[in-house]
Amino acid sequence: MRRKVLVIEGDGIGKEVVPVALEILKDLGDFEIIKGEAGLECYKKTGEFLPEETIKKAEESDIILFGAITSPKGVKEYKSPILTLRKLFNLYANVRPINSLGLLKINGYLGKNKFLNIDDVDIVIIRENTEDLYVGFEREYLDIAIADRVISKKACERIAKFAFEYAKSNNRKKVSLIHKANVLKVTDGLFLKVFYDVAKNYSLEADDYLVDATSYLLLKNPKLFDVIVTSNLFGDILSDEASILAGGLGLAPSANIGEEKALFEPVHGSAPDIAGKGIANPMAAILCVAMIFDYIGEKEKGDLIREAVKYCILNNKVTPDLGGRLKCEDVGREIKEYIRAKL
Ligand code: NAD
User: Could you give the maximum distance between any two Cα atoms of the chain, in Å?
Assistant: First the structure.
């Protein structure tokens, strides 16, 4: 089946890293590629951050590859295009692999005074993308501001099942629920109960941790974790924290997966401080391409891309954020050449 991929480069370094990643996608697979616009530059041109035409193209696509966009300052009616796309297509599972690709072990990535005494880290954080405090039910009552936390049985079941299926098909051993059920007795109490109900259908280990302990343990002893499943807010925070274990923003890919389509995006933003200099690290976007191949069931191609990225890191073929001197395009070329030599 020839899949249709909508490519939205967005703003800033999105326009630099996505074309590099796209070349690798095209090199390794046969896709129908279409382009769409979104973001601040698009707004300046068309008056819209996410034009109807882009939404229509997204509807017709199987996969969306998204770069990054710049959030405007002082535009009251602004709605994040990425949040809109997640909502429109019910992309309920946010998947963030945290894989150190050998960095921690080999050159003490965290620097001379490294406080971590661990080997490779390989965790996947799966975050429920549609509910929790992010439903946007906020109001003011006199001088009190209130936000509603929405946790439904249906969404808990769906994300727990997704996490166990993910663990099963990726030969992982354990799924851990992260929650705060000791305080949020009703909402996280429900998630906890549903999680263990779903776990009964799988012959995988299942356990749970409190979110505050997890934020400490992720850095102290990340080997405790394999697949993590959690709610929207906790997942948002923990996945950013954990990304440091995998070399930081320039190396962090993510996927937003629904029943019918999926959107892949590097975790970083448009990085206006380095945009236009050609020094953005394209590896996060390239690792998104690896996740696209995992998603369509061609994991060996995903693994080959990850192997190429690791090769470049270990041989210092990297951009300045990782201590190298290469430009964005040079890194793309190195990765492409490594892959071509292996095919
Ligand atoms: P950012 O991720 O753009 O940058 C944070 C820091 O990391 C910067 O110093 C930047 O130079 C560096 N960095 C990020 N990606 C890099 C890469 N690939 N290679 C090398 N260095 C990299 O976050 P920010 O500066 O807080 O936000 C900038 C803009 O991006 C804001 O308008 C923000 O709202 C937006 N943003 C968008 C998204 C998205 O589109 N999904 C995500 C986060 C932030």
Answer: 66
